Amino acid sequence: MRKVLVVLRREYLSRVRNRWFVIGTLALPALLIGAIAISAMLELRRTNRDRVLPIVDHSGVLYDLVAERLDSAFDPERVATTPEALEEVAERARERSISGYLVLDAETLTSGKATFHGDRAPRSLNRMRMQQAVVRSALEVRLRATDSGAQVEDLLSGGDLDFESASDEAPEEGAREVGMAVGFAAAMFLYFVILIYGMMVMRSVLEEKTSRIVEVIISSVRPWELMLGKILGVGAVGLTQVAIWMLTATLGLTVGLPYLIAFRPELANLRELLQYLPAVGALVLFLAFFILGYLLFSSLYAAVAAMCSTEEEAQQTQFPVTLLVMIPILFMSSVMDNPNSALSTALSFVPFFSPIIMLPRFLGGAPLWQVGLSMVLMVITIVGVAWVAGRIYRVGILMQGKRPTLPELWRWVKEAG
After folding, report:
1. DSSP-assigned letter for residue 167
2. Is there a contact between 199 and 205 (Cβ–Cβ < 8 Å)?
3. Domain locations in the chain?
């Protein structure tokens, strides 16, 4: 075991000390922090010129409704329709003390058309907000004029479709939807991370084999110790990187998001999503699936590298292993649509698919016993795959020349001692 730790330490330190690892690990947090900081700086630069929105209402009935709908993104300001007031607001726009002002008239009530006067056109998002507020307000005025009922605002907002589960144990619909969305993002993240670090193990084995360094290493370390040390060492690198990213994401949600909302009040609704985000248990489950999935596929990638002599051969031979990682992604839309269907449940019990499919299913309401069963099946599969991969590795690591055929691989597995 001491030799395994030596190999583990070498693999870990050789990677974390690499400047590209540092750059790659810090790039994502830096981009996240930078995006928040830049957004905050831009908001700080937004003076009253950008925020204040004078509204001239010639219709006499639209201002209150439009102002209420724009209140989260602007500071609406009523402008009288007298010639003096109109000249004053036009002068403010010419002097650029405000970015512009909005004019509503009788045509706004009939066609929803309004006019923005300013030195430049409003930003696309602001223009869309103004247009939506004006149209919905005009519709509300006309609907109320026909005594269509007191629920006009509910109709304008698009109504709603409630969900009532036949099971008392079903999660709240909002929590289920957000959980599935987070689970999908986590599944995609696991897909890329498992693929990247599995291939990293393959390249590490292949580099030592092609450079013939492995022949020297094997003289003092048994093949299975070398393979296990490489897998654990690269896995530790992956855990380090994932831990840094998760910490950054946590800080971004708990510290950065409130800070961003303080400067962008129109994003206040995002605060409600925080209550639906996965708890610590889900994060622990994410790490567990990452570790199990990594151990499973890295063993296969190590075996692939051991049986190949060149990078080209490895690229061709790794396709079946890569396909096992890709297949659950192809079924992800079906899993998202119905996480508890027979297909989704069956796929999540396939050990090679479980790391990617089971997490979104769990966050979407799958029972805990199914998660436990999938992990047990994965552990059993890991033991079997590691045993087979270890025997292939033991023979193949010193083999050079032609890539072995399937009968030869089977003979390696049977005869490796």
Report:
1. S
2. no
3. 49-156, 172-415
The tens digit of pLDDT for each residue in 259-302 reads 666 666 655 666 665 665 666 777 788 888 888 888 888 888 88
Identity of the amino acid at 379: V
CA distance 389 to 296: 10
Give the number of other CB atoms < 10 A from CB of residue 29.
Answer: 16
| Cβ atoms 104, 59 nearer than 8 A | yes
What letter does residue 170 receive in the DSSP assignment? P
124-172 pLDDT, tens digit each: 778 888 888 888 888 888 777 765 545 555 555 555 555 555 555 445 5
Q: Judging by DSSP bridges, how do beta strands 100-104 and 52-57 pair with one another? A: parallel
β pairing state of 75-79 and 52-57: parallel
Q: Is the pTM of this model over 0.90?
A: no
Residue 403 backbone zone (phi > 0: left; psi -120 to 50: alpha; other: beta) = beta
**Cα 94 from Cα 126, distance rounded (Å):** 20
Please state, as a whole number, how many other Cβ atoms lie within 10 Å of the Cβ of residue 199: 21
Question: Mean pLDDT per 10-residue run, the chain (417 residues)?
Answer: 75 75 73 67 57 86 87 84 89 84 87 84 81 86 66 57 52 59 80 85 79 71 76 83 78 68 61 62 82 86 80 80 88 83 88 87 82 91 83 72 70 67
Phi (first) and psi of residue 79, to 5 degrees: -115, 130
- Which candidate, 238, 211, 195, 208, places its Cα nearest to that of 393? 208
pLDDT of residue 42: 61
Q: How far apart are CA 313 and CA 325, in angstroms?
A: 19
- Give me 274's structure tokens: 């925080």
Q: Compute the distance between CA of residue 70 and CA of residue 30 in angstroms, rounded to an integer.
A: 33
Residue with tokens 């063993």: 299
If DSSP codes are grouped into helix, strand and coil, which group holds residue 144?
helix
> Cα 138 from chain centroid?
39
Cα 152 from Cα 130, distance rounded (Å): 20
d(Cα 90, Cα 59) in Å, to the nearest integer? Answer: 19
Cα separation, 102 vs 408, whole angstroms: 79
Phi, psi (rounded to 5 degrees) for 62: -100, -25
**Cβ proximity of 198 and 369 under 8 Å:** no
> What does the pLDDT read at residue 234?
81
Q: Which CATH architecture has domain 49-156?
A: 3-Layer(aba) Sandwich (3.40)
